[in-house]
Design goal:
Keywords: ATP-binding, Nucleotide-binding. GO terms for molecular function: ATP binding; DNA binding. By secondary structure, the protein is of the alpha/beta class. The protein has three domains: 164 residues, Ribosomal Protein S5, domain 2, CATH 3.30.230.10; 210 residues, P-loop containing nucleotide triphosphate hydrolases (Rossmann fold), CATH 3.40.50; 71 residues. It is 36% helix and 17% strand. It contains 21 helices and 18 strands. The strands form six sheets. A five-stranded parallel sheet has the order 11-14-17-10-18. Strand 1 and strand 2 form a beta hairpin.
């Protein structure tokens, strides 16, 4: 029998063998099973008996190949039951030859849904498998993968009837298009032209953002509207995002590919495992991976624990997170846009406000919770001013909606993707800094003179230098120019240092 084992979001084809020998009745499972898989002995026994089948009173050895691959979870139950019934002579296994079987068994013989069916079926398709059998609740999800014939079962008895009598299995539900649901729009943000520009640059280039300002300035509103500026995910990106949500058990009903960039906003009490992933056995993806190809928003960023914030440095730099466990390592993609929002001080009043109770030292300590190495990885860092009454009550209708800005963002992304196509990159934020410092992409000295001065004075790091250059390319793309000029570099530097305010 064939099944699929997951390591992260990567599936590996697993062959389930069953040997029934004379001896004291027992069930032994080999092939690096975890606790859930060890418990399959009792689940499968009860399911077989309660489905009206005979349990073989012999010594049963179940082997899961390859033996060197750790096996996690309960998705092997149905394949184990089929292999065992075939080995005992209860079932002819020819109809199941070359078929991947996935599903957890309940004690009454019902087949229950499992996590990660989408990447499992994708792995089966890559291995050349043409047919899969999945739980009925996972059928729509599995049918997303092209080139695979998906059928579903709700009970072990239905699978037995299919093998013995050819009783048809359940077909996946028809894919009914769902009309797009409107979300937050940039036109709802009052004022904050600087914040709107920062968001547009970030969306066009895939840059990280830090928003600093008093309560009510619009930090959260701006962050929540960043996904509305991003284009829909292409097929490959949508498959990656949907697979991550499938592994986490968060895929919405219907099983369709997630086309909109995800948005994750964990609470400031979030632990390190909840942010970057973790858990016993197979490590689950955290918020930074669930925001892959989308936005990770940390509101009240200084209130997060230092360990949680520092744990973000690796995924921000490399676009993936590696989780090490005693049973083996797991790598999850984590190419997300980080948006940090912070008040200027603990009392959350504007600096210099007559009612602010915080000393300058207290303010520095509060924002000092955001370490230099973390902030050095944030491209756009802007300070927002309080919204004025005239801006709040304006009714002139000249504020651009998300659709207008998103059109400029899409055009800028297309220009960047065409420029970096030979390098396998699509966004300016993904391009390596050394490449931008070498011909033909190196900017003239007169264009970067101010930037070089900041670097020589120590007010800008080498990493910051590269990030400003990347933003300058993004600004040029937004304005329809082939290469950045001195004004583009100056605006990028202002967005980097917060001096634009």
């Amino acid at each position: 029998m064939l099944c699929v084992g997951l390591v992260g979001v990567t599936g590996h084809l697993v062959e389930v063998e069953a040997d029934l020998a004379a001896g004291l009745p027992a069930v032994v499972i080999s092939g690096l099973p975890d606790t859930a898989l060890h418990e399959a002995r009792d689940r499968v026994r009860a399911a077989v008996v309660n489905s009206g089948q005979r349990w073989p009173n012999r010594r049963i050895t179940l082997n899961l190949l390859p033996a060197t691959l750790p096996k996690f979870g309960s998705a092997f139950d149905l394949a184990i039951a089929a292999a065992l019934l075939g080995g005992s002579g209860e079932l002819p296994l020819l109809p199941l030859e070359g078929v991947v079987i996935l599903g957890e068994l309940g004690l009454d013989g019902t087949v229950r849904p499992v996590r990660g069916v989408l990447p499992m079926v994708a792995a089966a398709a890559r291995a050349g498998v043409a047919r899969v059998i999945v739980p009925v609740e996972n059928a729509a999800e599995a049918a997303v993968i092209p080139g695979v014939r998906v059928r579903a079962v709700d009970t072990l008895h239905r699978l037995v009837a299919f093998v013995r009598d050819g009783t048809p299995l359940i077909e996946p539900p028809a894919d009914v298009p769902v009309p797009p649901v409107g979300g937050p729009d940039l036109a709802e943000v009052a004022g904050q032209q600087l914040g709107r520009r920062a968001l547009e640059v970030a969306a066009a280039g895939g840059h990280h953002v830090a928003l600093l300002g008093p309560p009510g300035a619009g930090k959260t509103m701006l962050a929540e509207r960043l996904p509305s500026l991003l284009p829909e995910l292409d097929d490959d990106a949508a498959l990656e995002v949907t697979a991550l949500h499938s592994v986490a058990g968060l895929l919405p009903p219907g099983g369709r590919l997630l086309r909109r960039p995800p948005f994750q906003a964990p609470h400031h009490t979030a632990t390190v495992p909840s942010l970057v992933g973790g858990g016993s056995g197979l490590a689950r993806p955290g918020a930074v991976s669930l925001a892959h190809r989308g936005v990770l928003f940390l509101d009240e960023a200084p209130e997060f624990s230092k360990g949680a914030l520092e744990a973000l440095r690796q995924p921000l730099e490399h676009g993936q997170i590696q989780l090490s466990r005693s049973g083996g390592g797991t790598v999850y993609p984590a190419r997300t846009q980080l948006v940090l929002a912070a008040n200027p001080c603990p009392c959350a009043k504007p600096a210099g406000d007559a009612h602010c109770e915080c000393s300058p030292l207290t303010r520095r300590r509060y924002l000092g919770k955001l370490s230099g190495p973390l902030l050095d990885r944030i491209d756009v860092q802007v300070r927002l001013m309080p919204v004025r009454a005239a801006e709040l009550m304006a009714t002139d209708g000249n504020v651009e909606p998300s659709a207008t800005v998103a059109a400029r963002v899409a055009a800028a992304r297309q220009a960047a993707a065409a420029r970096w196509a030979d390098l396998g990159r699509r966004l300016n934020a993904e391009v390596a800094g050394p490449l931008l410092r070498r011909p033909p992409w190196r900017l003239p000295a007169k264009v970067t003179v101010e930037l070089r001065g900041r670097l020589d004075s120590g007010s800008l790091s080498a990493r910051g230098f590269d990030r400003v250059i990347r933003m300058a390319w993004t600004i040029a793309d937004l304005d329809g120019r082939d290469r950045p000029d001195q004004d583009d570099v100056r605006e990028a530097l202002q967005l980097r240092t917060g001096e634009a305010a």
